[in-house]
Amino acid sequence: MIGLGALELGAQVIGSGLLLIATAKLAYVPIASWFELRIRLTSGRRARLAAGPRPGFRGIARGGDTEAAPRRTLVYPGDAIVSVIVPAYNEEVVLDACIASIVRSAFPRLEVIIVDDGSTDATWSIARGLAERHPCVHAVRQDNAGKGAALNRGIRMAVGDILLFVDADGLFDRHTVEWLIVPFSDRRVGAVCGDDRPSNADRPLTRMLSILSHVGTGLVRRALSLLGCLPIVSGNIGAFRAEVVRSLGGFHEHTLGEDLELTWRVHAAGFRVLFEPRAIVFAESPSTVRGLWRQRVRWARGLLQTTWMHRRMIGSPRHGIFGAYLALNTLTAIVGPVLQLGLLLVLLPLAIGGRQAVGRDAWAVLGWLGLVSTALVVVLALVLNGAWRELRNGWTVVLWPLYSCLMGLTMVWAIRDELRRAPQRWNKLHRTGIVAGDARLAAAHPTPDPARSLP
């Protein structure tokens, strides 16, 4: 039987490993800060930022035969066509509002493709009605084949130079599309990820997810974009150069992390992947613990599958800083959660035996749990995103340790499912249609012009 001394030593070793991982993550703070500061350093840059994106040069920056975009200006290809692809499976509650927000976009050259993946509710009827009302909207129905297949069906139909993928609960701001395509003025850019924020912060769980989401989007994505190793273009607000997607064969249809897996291939093909924080879409977060569990297990399985499929990229010098980052990401996103749960299992018998692995005072415990540093990082993320009102949800700090443990458990469960080769399903959230807080502004624009059509 293992003695308490050995358990205490084990706790200290595991805790030290987790502390190193947490310390590595703190490097995101200065990098994310510089991401934002560099575009606000002068009054001229601040003025351009306030003016927002505008159409500029002609050409979508294919290869070397196009007019270059003016430097230091927020312009996008003036003749680009953007195809917005919306995969839908039982989305009758949210589809109408999603398409309405896209159609009233300020960007003029837009087509919207709804792919109904064998829904069993009124989704197809709503999709057909939307296509009849809006000439730029097209709807197609297929037998249930999964999200990846639905996305690929949309890609085959699309005529756009840029493909924009969004889930059926997404709510766009009028300028979301314009902001999202500005980086494509650089011919080296293959994909751009926007900022997805919760639309339903109306209960403790969704309020906590709302404030924590700013860390993943506002802070981490800024830092990784600047470093050139953003690992995922979110399936809920992601744009790809169409020729790049087609050259790579589209989405992989047999993985739960289709957006993650495609992003890794874009990196491997030598293209840049960037983050544009001003391209905002609001979408539903899980409103129940069960819904959160199912979503995060799906995400964890997608990460495991992608990591295995592209294991040769991890740490490979051939892929530069992205390969090195993947090694760190494997430690933090896969190994770290397992170590965290292992630490809890070690601490339990220590607590029963009256032994302590950390100091007795409250600050020592809070520091060991990482709550102090996490709270400071959250505040910075809110500053970067200009989301000051989210501070009203700061009281959810008491839920963060429970959330962290749950996330660790989802990774363990995902590993179990992968080893057992459990069935892969959409496992999509149960939609509520609730729109609260800032998301209401995105849904409050004037009614779209029903006569609008693709130029």
Approximately how much helix is present in the residues? 40-55%
Summed over residues and divided by their number, the pLDDT gives a mean of: 83
Helical segment tally? 16
How far apart lie the N and C ends?
75 Å
Adjacency order of strands in the biggest sheet: 5-4-3-6-9-8-10-7
Q: How do the strands and helices of this protein lay out in sequence?
A:
Blueprint: H1 4-25, H2 28-37, H3 43-51, E1 54-55, E2 75-76, E3 82-88, H4 95-103, E4 110-117, H5 123-133, E5 137-142, H6 147-157, E6 162-165, E7 171-172, H7 176-181, E8 189-198, H8 204-227, E9 238-241, H9 242-247, H10 258-268, E10 272-283, H11 289-309, H12 320-352, H13 362-369, H14 371-385, H15 400-420, H16 439-442
Parallel strand pairs: 1-2, 3-4, 3-6, 4-5, 8-10
Antiparallel strand pairs: 6-9, 7-10, 8-9
Give a description of the structure.
The chain is an alpha/beta fold and 455 residues long. 49% of the residues lie in helices and 13% in strands. The chain has 16 helices and ten strands. It has an eight-stranded mixed beta sheet, with helices on both faces. Helix 5 links the parallel strand 4 and strand 5 (137-142). The longest helix has 33 residues, at 320-352.
Observed structural traits:
alpha/beta; 455 residues; globular; 13% strand; 8-stranded mixed sheet; 16 helices
Quick summary:
By secondary structure, the protein is α/β, with parallel strands linked by helices. 49% of the residues lie in helices and 13% in strands.
